[in-house]
Design goal:
Layout lengths: L12 E2 L9 E6 L7 H13 L4 E8 L5 E7 L2 H11 L3 E2 L2 E2 L1 E4 L9 H9 L5 E3 H12 L5 H5 L5 E4 L8 E4 L37 E2 L3 H14 L3 E3 L3 H8 L14 E2 H7 L3 E5 L5 E5 L6 E2 L1 H5 L3 H18 L6 E3 L3 H9 L13 H6 L5 E4 L6 E4 L1 H17 L5 E3 L3 H9 L13 H5 L7 E8 L2 E8 L6 H18 L6 E3 L3 H9 L13 H6 L5 E6 L2 E6 L1 H18 L4 E3 L3 H9 L5 H4 L4 H7 L4 E6 L2 E6 L2 H16 L6 E2 H12 L5 H6 L7 E2 L2 E2 L1
Parallel strand pairs: 1-16
Antiparallel strand pairs: 2-4, 2-7, 3-4, 5-6, 8-10, 9-10, 11-13, 12-15, 14-15, 17-19, 18-19, 20-22, 21-22, 23-25, 24-25, 26-28, 27-28, 29-31, 30-31
Helix pairs in contact: 3-4, 19-20
């Protein structure tokens, strides 16, 4: 599926929530309080039943006096579809709000709460400060409702004596805290040096300049000394303590690449996020892979198209930003400014932007934390983008190849902006070249002017003899298809359906040894050429084939006339009667019918008569005989070529034919090539 990466569940450790492939509960709030409770149930049921199948609807009264509803739908896909269609829909006088119900008590962060309160004197602290410290220490938020559901662990007391609401650990609470994740490495960033109440703010990893090979080697060394896991907040300290310090520049996307993004490009390591939100660099073992249920089932079919469009829009928006990264809080306004429309998260089945972006890990990566959270393109998306850009550059070259040293110049000629390797999420060009998929390009070491260099060219698989024969047949089919078009061309995107309709079978490019239609056209450049027409690409016949097709069409017009000849002044009118369109004078590069007839000397010629200038057909039998003799003579030669003078002499002595250059270049141009005194 183009939208998501294929994941095999058996290869990874699946999150417990993933196995809950049954019912999903949605909470509906902000219902119009003026509607009766019985009517609310019927109204909610009718709304959801229009799009999904319901398992149940429960109505409850909220603290403020209004009503809320809990709706059970069949699965996660249906929940997304319901949100996309009903979130913020106006019902009565209010717009309803739909969200997933909070997780059950089994996944509450009890160990983290106990660990935090045990580090506080008296195991008691103000509620607002507790929530702030929890977020700083564990990178996750905790609500008052979550604390109320942990009554066996903590006690919440109301404001007494003006000290504010307090959170206190219950006496004799036994909850193992040995598995609580730490935000920092105790070896290189010991927390003992920090007071229990001091702020622990981490603003993310910096932009750095480093080769992937060096980074990969050093990260394995760091992971080995840290038992296979390093908290991301202290990675830079641990790395610089054990390896050569990382150098970088300003975090503006023009002087380096975010280190957290580079970690994605290093093979064998993985960044995981704990239950509370702490990020950690670990070895990429099967046990460390966590796959969500939504990653396996993908989006609802009704939303797949919209999500694919959204991913393309995000790539288009980010690729013009220096370093391909923008601050998280700027995403919505940037999207609105770039596309001139609102980014409605609910349209894609989500209620939070973070959840929407997290569902596209093969395209988008979210790096940093807090106010320093950034959105950038994932490494796989950058590799795909770079591969496409490189192929476009190669195909713009006459020989479809260029030297690596000329890369910046070729890039600037194609994209009209200076080349910056940082825009592709790496620090060195060789790092991303090594990640390009196989059978895309060919890289060959060469010596150019006594300097070592690398020649980059488009990969081409050699066709089998059978595929070569099929390709020749395809060239004839293209001529047959395009000859019915008034201007002897067709829109590139319409070629496949037109081929299917005309010949009654699919055009399978794999049958010709190709992977793309454009490659197949490039294999028959003597028959067709691709022309840019604004934003469209047109497939049109080459000039030689145009002459051939129009020559045969004019010949048909002459033969269809009763006198086997047509007046030159009437030729265009007769042509239009037979084929339903005007003669393609402009496409042939002429402005008058007389000039066109002059080009078609192999099929028709003009003669003077009492009625004026008449157009008559040429004896094609003579030309066919001459073509057969020329082919027989050239096939017998070692390389299929002869000196022109020897060729004329042999044709005269063997076949008794006196042949002229004009006949070869005009009538037999499809068969032979006359160049530099040789016939081939």
């Amino acid at each position: 599926h183009p939208y998501r990466e294929e994941v095999t569940a058996t290869n990874y450790q699946i999150d417990e929530k993933m196995t809950e492939s049954g019912e999903v509960e949605l909470q509906v709030t902000n219902l119009d309080s003026g509607i009766d409770q019985r009517e609310v149930r019927q109204l909610v049921s009718a709304l959801f039943s229009e799009f999904v199948s319901l398992s149940g609807v429960n109505i409850y009264r909220q603290e403020g006096g209004g009503f809320g509803a809990v709706v059970k739908v069949g699965n996660l896909q249906e929940a997304q579809l319901a949100i996309s269609q009903l979130h913020k829909r106006k019902v009565g006088t209010k717009r309803i709000s739909i969200s997933h119900l909070p997780v059950d008590g089994g996944s509450l962060p009890r160990k983290e709460v106990v660990s935090l309160l045990q580090s506080v004197p008296g195991e008691k602290i103000q509620l607002f400060k507790f929530r702030q410290m929890f977020e700083e220490r564990f990178r996750g938020s905790i609500s008052v409702a979550d604390l109320h559901r942990m009554k066996e662990v903590v006690t919440l007391t109301e404001d007494l004596a003006g000290v504010g609401r307090m959170v206190q650990l219950k006496a004799n609470t036994v909850v193992g805290t040995e598995e609580v994740e730490s935000l920092h490495c105790e070896t290189h960033c010991p927390t003992g040096q920090v007071g229990w109440g001091e702020r622990r703010v981490w603003e993310g990893l910096p932009d750095v300049v480093v080769e992937l090979e060096v980074l990969s080697t050093n990260l394995r060394k760091v992971l080995k000394s840290h038992d296979g896991g390093v908290p991301l907040a202290s990675l830079l300290h641990c790395y610089n303590a054990e390896c050569d310090p990382l150098g970088g520049g300003a975090d503006d996307g023009q002087h380096g690449v975010p280190l957290e993004h580079l970690l994605q490009a290093v093979k064998g390591v993985l960044v995981t996020t704990g239950e509370t939100g702490i990020k950690k660099l670990v070895d990429a073992t099967q046990g460390n892979f966590g796959v969500k249920y939504s990653d396996l089932v993908g989006p609802p079919p009704a939303l797949a198209g919209q999500l694919i469009t959204f991913t393309r829009e995000v790539v288009d928006m980010l690729k013009i930003v220096p370093g391909c990264k923008i601050a998280f809080y700027k995403f919505i306004p940037r999207y609105h400014h770039h596309f001139g429309k609102q980014c409605r998260v609910a349209d894609y089945g989500y209620t939070k932007l973070r959840d929407l972006l997290d569902s596209l890990p093969h395209v988008i990566q979210i790096i940093g934390e807090g106010a320093k959270t950034f959105i950038t393109l994932a490494h796989k998306a950058q590799v795909r983008r770079f591969s496409n850009d490189l192929l476009k550059m190669l195909k713009s070259q006459p020989e479809k190849q260029f030297l690596l040293s000329a890369f910046p110049a070729v890039f600037e000629r194609n994209y009209f902006k200076p080349f910056s390797v940082y825009d592709y999420g790496v620090c060195h060009l060789k790092d991303i070249l090594s990640d390009i998929p196989e059978n895309t390009i060919v890289m060959e070491d060469v010596n150019e002017e006594s300097k070592p260099d690398v020649m980059i060219s488009v990969f081409r698989r050699d066709q089998t003899q059978e595929e070569v024969m099929r390709t020749r047949g395809f060239a004839k089919e293209v001529v047959e298809l395009l000859r019915h078009s008034p201007d002897l061309s067709i829109c590139f995107n319409k070629f496949i359906p037109a081929y299917h309709q005309h010949f009654g079978r699919q055009c399978r490019v794999g049958s010709y040894g190709m992977t793309k239609l454009i490659e197949l056209f490039e294999a028959v450049t003597d028959t067709v050429e691709i022309r840019e027409d604004g934003e469209e690409r047109l497939v049109q016949l080459t000039r030689d084939k145009m002459v051939w097709v129009v020559g045969e069409q004019v010949e048909c017009v002459i033969k269809a006339s009763r006198a086997r000849c047509v007046a030159l002044t009437d030729l265009e009118e007769e042509f239009q009667k037979m084929f339903g369109h005007l003669m393609p004078l402009g496409r042939m590069g002429v402005s008058r019918v007389e000039e066109l007839v002059e080009m078609l000397q192999s099929w028709v010629r003009t003669v003077n008569s009492k009625e004026g200038i008449m157009v008559v057909t040429v004896d094609r039998g003579f030309i066919r005989t001459m073509a057969s003799n020329v082919r027989r003579l050239l096939v017998e030669q070692d390389e299929g070529t002869m000196e022109f003078e020897d060729f004329i002499e042999k044709m005269a002595s063997r076949f008794g034919s006196h042949i002229e250059v004009e006949l070869l270049t005009r009538d037999l141009s499809y068969l032979v090539d006359v160049r530099e005194g040789k016939v081939a």
